[in-house]
Amino acid sequence: MTTVRALCIKVPRGEAEFTRKKLLEQNLLDIGLRIRRQGDVVLFPVRSEKAAELGFELVEEDLEEREVMVTDYRLVAKLPDEVRALLPTSFDIIGDVAIIRLGDDLVEHASEIGKALMTTFPRLRTIALDRGVKGELRVRELQVIAGDPDAETVHVEHGIRLRVDPTKVYFNPRLANERRRIASLVRAGERVVDMFSGVGPFAIMIAKHSRPEAIWAMDLNHDAVEYMRRNIQLNKVTTVIPLEGDSADLLFRVPCADRIIMNLPHSARDFFADALTRLNMGGVIHLYVICERDEISDVAIGLATEARGMGVRVGMERIEELKTYSPTMSVFALDIRFLDWC
Ligand SMILES: C[S@@+](CC[C@H](N)C(=O)[O-])C[C@H]1O[C@@H](n2cnc3c(N)ncnc32)[C@H](O)[C@@H]1O
Q1: CATH topology (fold) of 155-341
Q2: Which of 148, 186, 269, 341 has CB atoms 3.0–4.6 Å from 210's, for a disulfide?
Q3: CA–CA dist 273, 283 (Å, integer)
């Protein structure tokens, strides 16, 4: 271990723990060096002479370097304490790009927060501020706040690799387990339609882990379909058929399906009746919906009633809350099986 001459404060042992916390809070502790005990005092390596304001003697001593294992970026960010307390505890990572949401009080500190994330997670190449998902194509408005301005990256989940530029296409890394679940349900020879496929994560996951006859994967966003084409090659899958356009039309140009995936949570319900007319008896629709948590039963009843109006009896095989969307709303996954004609 290397020893370096470092600026420290000398603190009586009895005050060491309190002082350590104070130094961390004020981002004055030099976490790259080891704290040393010397008789009745403790030597704390500090980042600046400002640490003397805590009332202890400032000295120079030889201290050992240590591997930095700080995993909480909030301790690294050079911010006033009242601002630090507001920092979010979580953020999304797509490949080597981090996407973070900040409240109004934090936006002016975005660049410092970006720097802290890059220091804490050296694997990250780009940090982007999330300004919300917009429009029909559901693309996130992102502002790069630290690192490489090019946000294109390769994301890995459950054995598939997805090239994606989150500034041009929708992609949600939090759905990885849901995609794996759907892939595990697909039987050999199934015909699958993915109506809102984005860069192809559901379709490619299914093609990689199951043996469908084909997956027709549709999207309105030209960039998403281009990335899907690249991802098909990247993963060497042969059963995904990418289609660019409105799935309300495309649905009627492909064969009826045994399974239809409808991952457009704000408006998938509007496409439900059309999807049902293209589903084989015994098949399943995986429909994703955002609604008030206490209204999900009404949503399910509404869909079953709509199906009955079309002469189809459906079974709600599974209703699962996937993630919270707001204090009162969540995203739900519904598995709806075409049971019979009625
Ligand atoms: C919530 S994203 C889901 C993407 C993908 N399934 C995923 O998990 O990453 C919804 C996608 O539907 C596409 N979209 C919206 N309306 C559409 C339509 N009428 N026809 C086809 N695609 C549509 C958007 O461009 C977007 O890529």
Answers
A1: Rossmann fold (3.40.50)
A2: 186
A3: 14
How is residue 187 annotated by DSSP?
A: P
Cβ–Cβ under 8 Å, residues 99 and 48: no
Output Rg (C-alpha) for the chain, integer angstroms: 26
List where CATH 3.30.70.2580 sits in the chain: 3-64
Which fold would CATH assign to domain 73-151?
A: GMP Synthetase; Chain A, domain 3 (3.30.300)
Each residue of 26-59: pLDDT tens digit? 878 888 789 999 999 999 999 888 888 889 999 9
Query: What beta strand segments (E) does 148-188 contain?
Result: 153-157, 160-164
Q: What is the pTM of this model?
A: 0.81
To test ligand 1's pocket by mutation, which of 165, 169, 219 has the most ligand atoms within 8 angstroms of CB?
Answer: 219
Which residues belong to CATH 3.30.300.110 in the chain?
Answer: 73-151
Domain 3-64 top-level CATH class: alpha beta
For the chain, residues classed under CATH 3.40.50.150 are: 155-341
pLDDT for position 68: 58
C-alpha span between 272 and 267 (Å, rounded): 9
Neighbours of 63 (CB within 10 A): 22
Ligand 1 pocket, CB under 6 A: 136-138, 170-172, 175, 196-198, 201-202, 218-221, 224, 246-248, 263-264
